[in-house]
Amino acid sequence: MTTAINPAERSSRSAPTRVELAALLAEARDRTLALIETVSEEDLRAQHDPLMGPILWDLGHIAHFEELWLDRNLDGKVEFVEMPGMYNPFEHPRRVRGALPLPSLSATLEAMAEIRERVLARLERVDLASDDPLLRDGYVYQMVLQHEYQHNETMLQTLQLKQGAPYQPAVRRQLHAGMADVVPGEMVRVDVGSATIGTDDRARAYDNERPRHAVHVAPYWIDRTPVTNGQYLAFMADDGYARAELWSDAGRTWLAETKAESPKYWWRESGEWLRRSMDQVERPAPDKPVIHVSYYEAEAFARWAGKRLPTETEWEVAASWDPGAERANAYPWGRREPRISDANLDQLGFDVAGIGGYRENVSPLGCYGMLGDAWEWTSTDFRGYPGFAAFPYPEYSEVFFGTEYKVLRGGSWATRFGAMRNTFRNWDYPIRRQIFSGFRCAR
Ligand SMILES: [Fe+2]
């Protein structure tokens, strides 16, 4: 894990050079391999749960996605469906990937290295000042990098879910302690009238983040911090899971099917709740954001608290809008590039951290922890912004637009800095909670 460039600290607005892109590719691969350093081949090959495919598949898929976009694509336009069959996610949904004849770990690592060699040779010759929007400013490289970062998060979901002995990371970064001056449940009033959300960035942002557009927002209140374990335990103790009136129809159906009575990865032992993040078991720390909850649980908590979930627009305005300057910032802390100490992102803490501990992670409107720790459910369905245009392929975003998915914002401890900014949009089914999902409320 020794590389010259820390992706958290590299400028995103100046176009990256060839040397920087090569260093970022190397850094991304170092991280991917570091995450699996302590995992046996058997565990990498196993289908641990119908929700998640084998990690060995992710590794091959990362490499073949890279080959498609950074090698073959440069010979002439390719379509996403040209992904080789075995590693095409649409041909093989996660629940069946364990049955694929995946190559051995050593063969997979060899393929990854061989593809990378070709990609680096290509990088020497590619025209980064091209008129082609895919090449200009290295967009396609940023896309492939983010793809690897995002698959790292998927791999961490699998590792948290894995059967057998819990995952033990090879390296671990110390998390900041929470700060007592930040009070859970306290709200901020937002009355900005008009603002903008989204971005016109073409060097790194995904198609679904574009274009930047004006929004008119009615005044609202939003939680200063994510909802904590302490608040959530109060909801549980007040029979939150048993009170039908707190749950939506879909939420009640989910509750009846799952019989859930706590967040995922929580259990009760001698009358006391415990939770697990990878190999660490603890009593749920009252000042840590609650994580691994479904949209329905978030919705029920909000109703119990006399609140509701924020819309995606309300969330982004709270994270990005600087009312003094009347402009949106790329990060809660402003426009400067992130430093590792800004937020609990970047995976190596392997858990959420106490609220308020990352002092830079506060937006101009006064919201803490908008980025990092846990993804935050919003009440908004995943759709294209006005003026959306699929780029470079509809299979990234467009095929998921509709009413099936809810938008999540802000990243989690398992998200890398290079795949996180205020405008970043994630989406998932409201029943999902193997993802690193939490929430905050609005009113
Ligand atoms: Fe992928």
Give an overview in words.
This protein is α+β, with helices and mostly antiparallel strands and 443 residues long. Residues 1-12 have low confidence and may be disordered. It has helices at residues 18-35, 41-45, 55-70, 105-123, 139-161, 229-237, 249-258, 295-304, 312-320; strands at 187-190, 193-197, 213-217, 220-223, 266-269, 272-277, 280-282, 321-322, 327-328, 375-381, 406-409, 425-428, 437-438. Strands 12-11-10-13 form a four-stranded mixed sheet. A three-stranded antiparallel sheet has the order 5-6-7, with no helix packed on it. A two-stranded antiparallel ribbon has the order 1-4. It has nine helices and 13 strands. The N and C termini lie far apart (44 Å). Bound molecules: fe (ii) ion. Fe (ii) ion binds at residues 61, 65, 89, 147, 151. Residues 61, 65, 89, 147, 151 line the site of fe (ii) ion (FE2).
